[in-house]
What does this fold into?
Amino acid sequence: MTPSNKSRNARQRKKLHVGEFQEFGFEYKADLTKELNSDEEAQLIHTFLEELIEPRDLALSGWLTTGFVCNFGSGSATDEDREALKAWMMARPEFKNVEVGALKDAWYSPMDTEFAE
It folds into this structure.
């Protein structure tokens, strides 16, 4: 639920992450090509974080097959981040059916993206 549109000063807008302080992120989902054991899963998520999430200064909420990605700290994820995630997953043999949602409000959007890509 987005805060009401009543008049707020910059400090209030910043605290609520609205207006010029709104932040965006995106959802993703994918299927694994085969079932992984716990060690393989741990290694793959570590590689995902090390090769994609951390170098782009992003934060991940989720796991291998579904999650939400936003900027680490203040700011927004970008369309370039979306494309990089999609390209990384599609290049990996462990993933298939990769879908990346559009940028959406990271603070107030429901987690129910319909993937159209």
